[in-house]
From TrEMBL:
Pfam families, alphabetized: DUF6580
Source species: Gracilimonas mengyeensis
Matches recorded under InterPro entries: DUF6580
UniProt keyword terms in alphabetical order: Membrane, Transmembrane, Transmembrane helix
Bilayer-spanning residue ranges: 27-43, 50-69, 81-100, 107-131, 151-170
Name this protein carries in UniProt: Uncharacterized protein
Amino acid sequence: MKNKRFLVLSGFIVIAALSRIVPHPYNFAPIGAMSIFGAAYFTDKKFSFLLPLAAMFVSDLLVNNLLYANFYGGFVLFTPGFWWMYGSIALIVLAGIFILKKVNTKTVIAGSLSASIIFFLVTNFGAWLGNPIYPQGLEGLFMSYAAGIPFFHYTVLGDLVYSGVMFGAFEYARSKTPALQTVSTR
């Protein structure tokens, strides 16, 4: 039973990550949703971190080497600035562990919005540090955040939509399948 739950949770995260190869608006992605989803449901919290990060890595390989192959001009193992994206995933998982101790509509929305904000703050901070077009002072940092604002609404919308689908589908499946219930360790 425990293995079935683990496989289903992992499957949700992998499918969400692979949805990144489907055409979508910039930043309308499952990154925050799959991170808080793992945080909410994996009883062994190491998988809350490992599965979203691994799924992101695999989907990055596909996105970078299939969809954006012409842009990069060769095989790309790691997305430029990946430390900031993957670091934001880890922070989102950490926030999700605290916010989603109980899964309900209010905590899922709070977790989703927190994920969007964390991703925006961390990745734009990384863009400021790593991109020479931004002066390395407060002015440059604010420029980096201002440049990200036009994409932020898609981040929020993507996190909310994917969270709604992932949490809603899993809660429905859990209500119909006893093997997906949390296994008590007592």
